[in-house]
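Q: Predict the assembly, please.
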Amino acid sequence: MKGLSAYLIALAALAGLVVLAFAVGRYPISLSEFVGLLLSKMGASHRDLAPNVETVILQVRGPRVLAALLVGASLAAAGTAYQGMFRNPLVSPDILGVSSGAALGAVLAIFLSLGAFLVQMLAFAGGLTAVGLVYWVGSRLRGHDPLLALVLTGVVIGSLLGSMIALLKYLADPYNQLPAITFWLLGSLASIAPRDLAIAAPLALAGLAPMLLLRWRMNLLALPDDEARALGVDTARLRTIVVTAATLMTAAAVAVSGIIGWVGLLIPHAARLLVGPGFGRLLPLAMLLGAAFLLAVDTLCRTLATIEVPPGVLTALIGTPFFLWLFALSRRSW
Amino acid sequence: MTLEVRKLSFGFPGRTIGSGITFTLARGEVLCVLGPNGGGKTTLFRTILGLLGKHSGHIAFEGKGIEHLSREQIARQAGYVPQGHSAYFAFSLHEFVLMGRTARLRAFSSPGRIDRDIAQQALESLGIAHLGDKPVTQISGGERQLALVARALAQEPQLLVMDEPTASLDFGNQVRVLEKIAALASGGLSILFSSHDPDQAFLSAQRVLLLGEGHAQEIGAPKDVIRSDTLERLYGVSIRIIETENGERACLPSLRRSGGH
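A: Predicted assembly structure:
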């Protein structure tokens, strides 16, 4: 099978990173402690471990590692779907305004001093609403290329949402609210609780299911619209499904992590260079790479310095040169 | 009857491009549409394929009105070979042709071995099987044109709609495409194609439709329809029809000399 080695390497890298992510940090955990806990949780061993070890693995690092995997895989999957659908490898999952909408929702919740749970809920709802609005307006601009209409509407509405965020920041209490807003907008996986995952994971899976089921038809969205339709695809309906699925995944991710750029742009591109544009092969590899990439970034974020580095800063630092390198490498075709 | 078009009026929303188009296409029949640039050939084809809504009139595949057919049902009836193709992603030629199988698959399935075999046969029948693993972004314009035909054949249609299939091809490849059209038609496929070259109608079509100024100016057998007067009216230049001793016909334009000695 084409690209089998790419899958195996990505899987091995991911497994290694997971073990490493559990091990390193302010409270180092040895491999034997990690394996010992896993075995005792499965009832296979009754070795006594320091209670700290269990707390660090299950309460602190476990949720954070899982969140990095979930958010990384979701952003990569949504980016893969959008790059195919928009026939453009420079597209990222927030092109239709899901991040700006989520940001406005979260900022509004912080501004209204609502709790952490409501911040997430409003972020999720904001992301969905923004894309719904863009899609509704964009599909009413008839007589244009439907994709172009969507992208332009996304840009315009995204900038409107940006100005509303700016207004809320201006009005926010500069001592309590403004720092919280800034931290949210920078993105972070530091304060993930198991409950966040329990909500985000099913939503992301609900978005993933249609992409997996329609993996063959997704390829035809990369053709000119007329050709895909002449081959029997109802492109308008398929696009609606893809936008809904990708938005669900991205909004679920952004609601727990805040805005972390570059993953959804860079990872699908890298995966495409490894296994080609066929969606059925591309999607699983992009998700593996996305999960591994964000886990690596987040592990660096919490171990590089005594303070946490925002992951969005690190993804940009890694992403910019890497992307330029990929761009130079791939010449003219994707 | 593979395709029936009656009193068709077509165009874009709010702008009619052509009207009064009536013709039928039987099994194994080849119809060539001739007309000047902007005469509405592509728009007519897109309307027949249901890619563009008709303004009025009737289009039917195997007796069934197009308004009762889903995209998938149309794709099982008619294969479309568009004019050129811009490739965005580096799908291999084999994957590209395999996309022709989509209308034959259930919504959530991917192509299986039978589909792969059919795609392979389509590639072989056009003589491009050796390019199967090559990315569509890296093949020549002529090869891509053949790939589009192969993809349409993989649909296993009753009708092939080809929009200027020989445009951008060198002379040898033009002849090869015409030979392919003849072979496919003798295998029972109905073919609707457009061209800028009236000679192609003499060579490969049983009937010709002259489409100019938005309406069908004439339809019939090539030797009846393609005349000096009709071509002059269609293209606005003077053209002689010459005939060989075997009864084969060809068009020869007479160039107007301006000034000079």
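The mean pLDDT of chain A is 91. Residues 51-85 of chain A form the longest helix (35 residues).
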